[in-house]
Specification:
about 10% strand; 14 helices; globular; alpha/beta; four-stranded antiparallel sheet
Length: about 450
């Protein structure tokens, strides 16, 4: 064994040991971090060493020092934001991605990655009930998935209006008007800013955050010029989905491009029990999701789907004389904003291959079942009220007033048993529970409800 191989083996062995120790601690460790940033700087060492250190020693330091400053996000009792865990198949596959060290931009250069991308694309379109002719880009996350789809929309709409944005830029171009529901996710706004399109025009929503079709119709009356309508599959507070069938018909009648932001809710299509929530979404023009959420793939696995492949390739494609292009198939770089990128499709393939069609449906159903269990058990806590219709994986609750709700969030975090995020919804402070982790159990739900009961006890009436 050569020196380089020996050093790699020692470092990887140490990382393996440290990773297993971390994973085995999740059931009992407090969910919030137990050390401050300053404490972690001191533990990790702020000064750059003068001399070198072996890779194994560095990994040992990292593995030993880091855990107090880590949040147990992979725990079954982490319900903050909308963050899934990492399925074992996805985690192991992600290790291989780093070990293989492939730049996955070119079709002919990395045949394994290109094969996995073609297979996984077909699986995803089938599972989600989307057009088989659509193309798929594997990007960093939900934000870049929205960006990629909306870039395709922008360029296609301007091209229809007689403007070549790739050639002339946006200065002097017709305005692309974007319409979204008042409770769209802020990554829509961020994507639009990055695309130079400005803020969306907002239309009213119902009590669950669903876009109102009558308000959309009114906003589109007399519309002229390029228009894009953004719909939502999965409101972050209620889990509700916009009425896809009706909204898409109204938007298309006005000549609009329809994009569906389904960061976590797009996966409702994978289960017969929840498919009705997104019925009709297949008629849209683009869709986005983040596989790290409901599918529980490691981070760096967003998915951008565009019905018209040519629109996606025109917006994202680039060509250089030094690149080894394939004349028979599109290169992966034509579907994403990056040239240098890791093989992020690999863990997506691994999780889908492990679960299969029935396993994905069961995962979705299990997450939804835990959310409903939260709803039932929270109803037994005096002074706690669930505010949303629990139709998917989100639960929003409140105590008798904003002050009590905010203090309860603080007490939950101090307790450490679980993580529930404070937020504001419908002009009220809320405790938001997002059930997104494949490893969450019925016992995790019971333990977390008990923590909520303890946190709310001083405010019960």
């Amino acid at each position: 064994m050569g020196r380089a191989e020996s050093e790699s083996t020692a470092a990887l062995d140490r990382a393996h040991t440290q990773a297993l120790a971390w994973l085995s601690s999740l059931d009992e460790r407090p969910v919030p971090a137990q050390a401050s940033v300053e404490e972690m700087i001191a533990a990790l060492g702020p000064g750059l060493p003068t001399g070198s250190t072996s890779a194994e020693e560095v990994i040992a330091l990292l593995g030993d020092a880091a855990p107090p400053g880590l949040v147990a996000m992979p725990s079954g009792r982490f319900f903050g934001f909308v963050i899934g865990g990492t399925h074992p198949a996805g985690l192991a596959a992600d290790w291989l991605v780093s070990a293989w060290d492939q730049n996955s931009a070119l079709y002919a250069v990395t045949p394994t990655h290109s094969a996995l991308e073609r297979i996984t694309k077909d699986w995803l379109l089938d599972l989600l009930g989307l057009p088989g002719s659509a193309d798929v880009g594997f990007v960093t996350g939900g934000t870049m998935a929205n960006f990629t789809c909306l870039a395709a929309a922008r360029d296609a709409l301007l091209r229809q209006a007689g403007w070549d944005v790739a050639q002339h830029g946006l200065a002097g171009a017709p305005r692309v008007r974007v319409i979204a529901g008042a409770e769209r996710h802020d990554t829509i706004d961020l994507s639009l800013r990055m695309l130079g399109l400005g803020a969306p025009d907002l239309v009213s929503v119902d009590e669950q955050g669903r876009l109102r079709v009558d308000a959309l119709r009114e906003a589109l009356e007399g519309a002229s010029g390029p228009v894009c309508v953004c719909l939502q599959a999965g409101n972050i507070h209620s889990g509700a989905c916009d009425p896809m069938t009706e909204a898409i018909v109204v938007a298309h009648e006005a000549g609009a491009w329809v994009h569906v932001d389904g960061a976590f809710g797009l996966w409702a299509a994978a289960s017969e029990r929840t498919r009705h929530l997104v019925a009709g979404m297949e008629a849209a023009d683009s869709w986005s999701t983040d596989a790290h959420k409901t599918l529980n793939v490691p981070y760096d696995c967003g998915i951008a789907i565009v019905a018209a492949p040519a629109a996606l390739h025109a917006a994202m494609g680039m060509h250089g004389d030094y690149l080894i292009a394939d004349d028979q198939a599109r290169d992966p770089l034509e579907t994403v904003p990056e040239l240098s990128r890791r093989g992020r499709v690999v863990p997506v393939w691994a999780v889908l291959r492990t679960l299969g069609r029935s396993g994905v449906a069961e995962l979705v159903d299990r997450l939804c079942g835990h959310a409903r269990a939260f709803e039932v058990q929270i109803a037994e806590i005096p002074g706690c009220t669930v505010l949303n219709e629990v139709v998917f994986t989100q639960v929003s609750l409140a105590l008798q007033d904003d002050a009590a709700t905010s203090r309860a969030v603080e007490r939950i975090m101090a307790d450490g048993e679980c993580w529930m995020t404070g937020s504001r919804w419908r002009d009220r402070a809320v405790v938001r529970i997002s059930v997104s982790n494949w490893s969450t159990t019925e016992d995790d739900v019971r333990r977390s409800v008990a923590a909520l009961r303890r946190a709310s006890a001083p405010f019960q009436t």
